[in-house]
Amino acid sequence: MKLKKSTINNLISYGIVIVAFVAVQLLQNAGLVSRSLRGQLVPICVYIVMAVSLNLTVGISGELSLGHAGFMSVGVFSGVVFSQWMTSLIAMRYDAAVAAQQETLILVVSMFVGGLFAGLAGVIIGIPVLRLRGDYLAIVTLAFGEIIRNVINCLYISIDNGRVHIAFDNPNVAGEIIVNGPAGTRGVDRISTFVIGFALVLFTLFVVLNLINSRSGRAIMACRDSRIAAESVGINVTKYRMMAFVTSAFLAGMAGVLYGLNMTSVQSSRFNFDTSILVLVFVVLGGIGNIWGSIIAATLLTVLPEMLREFSDYRMLVYAVVLILVMLVTNSPMMRAFFGRILPHRRGDAGKGGEAA
Question: Cys-Cys link to 9, which of 23, 213, 234, 344 (CB 3.0-4.6 A)?
Fold first, then answer.
């Protein structure tokens, strides 16, 4: 059987990610990975998923969203609460040792729950918002992210004998407090691992790449290229824009759970406008619509601040200069042609007018 070109490219992408994972594992076993870099492995996976999922909205669907951090925060807090609740139920029925042995299962289930809540938030915001275009959509998604952050600041959630108690502006809830208003989560079990992060990256690539190469993906790109032409041939523009938007939100929610369960405490202030812009920088720097560009940009820009730590007060200045230089280089026609030949899944493979990283 002959494989389609898109299928071969997908398999190459999965293979490259697997090889990168094996290489990192071997380096860790050999003691060649520093402690600071080991601490960055899970955040790298998180930001790769965030960048690829946002690229689905910005690059493939052609809609500018500035509220991606809001979906991440929904995933963080819903996933953390669910994981702590599930742990408490297992500990009540069996004991704490059994609950500790089920950490991987708890993490995986919590990630899907966080993704479902974020996807539901995507549906709620998408129904009125996706009828807007251009700057109006960007402003409304930005407002959504700020609304979510302020709602979480007023939220107090506790677990008492397997029951979840939720209150607004009332810190005197019964049981062990999991979400403590502006103070964020506390007492969270750190169960996120690089292996699960790698699995999430593969899952994200599988979902996004197969969606792009499917009939629905072609409809999404048709809506992006010409809304009027898409409507003239009977394509439901709102439906397919919603499909891309909700899928992006779902993946961002899963990444949020991985992020939240990698720390003992997370505040909602972490998921402000700056975080949404940071993820958008990954997408723009890697190339709009370029999935591999998003992966590379997210990895490099997550590690770069730690690599520049020795520059102390000047490291963010150097970081900004590096960003400017990279943008100048990647906008060179010669460099775009070079990367277009060596990188799979550039936008040109999915639709016309693509950019290479």
Answer: 344
Inter-CA distances, 97 with 159, 174, 179, 242, Å: 19, 25, 24, 43
Beta-carbon contacts of residue 115 (< 8 Å; ≥ 6 apart): 75, 250, 251, 253, 254, 257
**CA–CA distance, 260 with 22 (Å, rounded to integer):** 25
Instruction: Identify the pLDDT of residue 343.
Output: 55
pLDDT per residue as tens digits for the range 287-339: 888 898 899 989 988 888 777 776 666 666 777 777 777 777 766 677 667 66
Contact 146, 262 (CB under 8 A): no
Collect all residues with Cβ–Cβ distance below 8 Å to 2 and sequence separation of at least 6. none
pTM: 0.87
Polymer length of the chain: 357
- pLDDT, tens digit, for every residue of 143-180? 888 888 888 888 898 888 878 888 887 777 777 888 88
Phi, psi values for residue 185, rounded to 5°: -75, 155
148 — phi, psi (to 5°)? -60, -45
Cα 114 to Cα 6, 142, 158, 159, 256: the distances in Å are 30, 21, 17, 18, 8
